[in-house]
Amino acid sequence: MKKILLILLFVHNIIFSELIIEITESSENLIRVAVVQKQQATKIGDLVVGVIEQDLKRTGEFEVLTKDQMLSIPTKESEVIQRDWLLLEVDAIIFLDIDESRNNLDIKFLIYDVGYKDISDDGKVLGLPDSLRQTSHFVSDEIYKYFYGIDGVSATKLMYVTKNENIHRLIISDSDGFNEQVILKSNQSIISPTWSSDAKDIAYVSFENNRAQVFLHNLATGKRESILATGSTVSSPAWSPDKSKIAFSSTMDGNSEIYLMDLRSKKINRLTDNKAIDTEPAWSPDGKKILFTSDRSGSPQIYEINPINLVKRRITTVGNYNARPSYVNKQKIIFVHRGTESFQIAALDLRTREFEILTSTKNDESPCIAPNGNVIIYSTKEGELSYLAGVNISSGVRFKLPAIYSELKEPAWSPFLR
Q1: Which of 57, 200, 160 is nearest to 368 (CA)?
Q2: Contact (CB, 8 A) for 294 and 281
Q3: What is the mean pLDDT of the chain?
């Protein structure tokens, strides 16, 4: 099956990467592969191979052979000696054909099934010379999708807040921690960063000037706009899927409620009206519902509201603390759950009511879902140190993303960039 992808890139500044990704629990059934270049190996080709190998290993679902583990290194399919690769229990060989001519960096990939001695998939990614890592990430995602039937997320972005010696930074990086871009640096708190559905803009709350302000920030131009600045508490801005509205929570009327702002007219409508605390809105994928957290039942629980007719319903009933919800898809949500003592990330199927604890750490908060709906990143703590951790829902792979120099919190995963 032939596939050609055209890459859309962020404009960014490269600084030293703070994230280190550590797999803490791998899949029980690793797919064993080798990644080699077709024809003669080149320096650029070696770099591409290295990025793809790391992408696959980072999923916790692949075992990638090193060159010294291979009994032979074929440069095309006809050179594959099947018995050698079966002896090594290799499932597939990934052949890369890298074209550096015409001021481009185009990568053709071919997946060779060792058992069947046949090509099982191939494709091509079109890139640019200065986008080697991003081009390679797109190839990795296509390889991942072939084996698991789920879109890979190597080519996506992460946004998070770091804190070091009371300096707060809002940062965007590749999903592997490379190519960090500092969006905002402040000696005041930065909270609730969130992506627009097309990944061109972000929103966040900054406490600069000693008051909470909601900013919209365009990533291509760097232009930002304060759309809400009050003396009241404001938090959790959330873009509607069509980018026409922002939902947020605020105490502007004296109590924490959920509000909706039309971004064209700047008109604000109040969605909830209750003596309880209502906060943390999150849109459904179709834009027809909004989840939020409320203690109107006596303890924090998750509710859903229709922003048109304001009809509400309670979603969670298990446990005495459920908060910070977001949709995985139309029928599943994730949120922070406290059972007896620990705060962990849980999932709830809205149709079957199946409830599942997803994490094994004890102080978890701020869960966000990858755009493929299968990987969750969240903030957690060891002692007083905050760091990011993650779990793959389908495979159970678990990983950590500690920072080298600072605390990490408030993660937000970008939509797909293609």
Answers
A1: 160
A2: no
A3: 90
